[in-house]
Amino acid sequence: MDTHKFAQIQGGGPVRRIALQNTLAHGLAEVWEVLTEVKHVQHWWPDWQPGGVIEPREGGRICLGEGAWIHGTIKVWRPPHILEFTWQEHLGHAPDWLETHTNSILRIDLVAQSASTTLLNLVQFAPADSAVGGAAGWHHFAGERLTAYLRDGRVRDDPGRFEQLRQLYAADSD
């Protein structure tokens, strides 16, 4: 198991700050496109649900995932540098699943380090009880899977990988 950590959990109290940095060997425009266009996100986002949507504008909807649907509203849309959105989620497919509350805010900033290198800075403010899973998830999604997809357009699924990472991050938070 790769033990390199991309994410850090910071803070105390009911809300934690999850911060991740990842240097990507790709240009700014390409990274922005892969982060914000459904035709790409569906490949590196785990458990992609057909019908997922990213409306490319402030006030636009964002819906990702399957089983634990992620949905929210885009608050900041500044191509090709800043994407920020609210993050709501539900578990399962209960009839009242839209009756959720905003439980997080996610911001992604991209900084061109050269013509062919982009620094991804991701910050999520999340409830304390989901911080370990959030850090493991971002390590897996925006660390490993995004990097693999940018490298060769493919992602190898490893069903146990998230749990390995969750355990790694949980051990550090004890």
Structural class: alpha+beta
Overall pLDDT score: 86
Q: Considering DSSP H and I runs of 4 or more, what fraction of the residues is helical? A: 25-40%
Over the alpha carbons, how many angstroms does the gyration radius reach?
15 Å
Main β-sheet: number of strands, strand sense, barrel status?
8 strands, antiparallel
Low-confidence stretches: 92-101
| Secondary-structure element series | EEHHEEEEEEHH
Number of helices: 4
User: How many β strands by DSSP?
Assistant: 8
Query: Distance between termini?
Result: 20 Å
Strand order within the widest beta sheet: 1-2-8-7-6-5-4-3
Q: What form results from the Cα inertia axes?
A: globular
Notes on the structure:
This protein has 174 residues and is α+β, with helices and mostly antiparallel strands. The protein has 4 helices and 8 strands; from the N terminus they run E-E-H-H-E-E-E-E-E-E-H-H. Strands 1-2-8-7-6-5-4-3 form an 8-stranded antiparallel beta sheet. Helix 3 crosses helix 4. It starts with 6 loop residues before the first strand and ends with a helix.
Features:
4 helices; eight-stranded antiparallel β-sheet; 34% strand; globular; alpha+beta; 174 residues
In short:
This protein is α+β, with helices and mostly antiparallel strands. The protein is built from four helices and eight strands.
Which SSEs are present, and which pair or pack?
Blueprint: E1 7-10, E2 15-24, H1 28-36, H2 38-44, E3 53-54, E4 61-64, E5 70-78, E6 82-89, E7 104-114, E8 117-127, H3 131-152, H4 161-173
Antiparallel strand pairs: 1-2, 2-8, 3-4, 4-5, 5-6, 6-7, 7-8
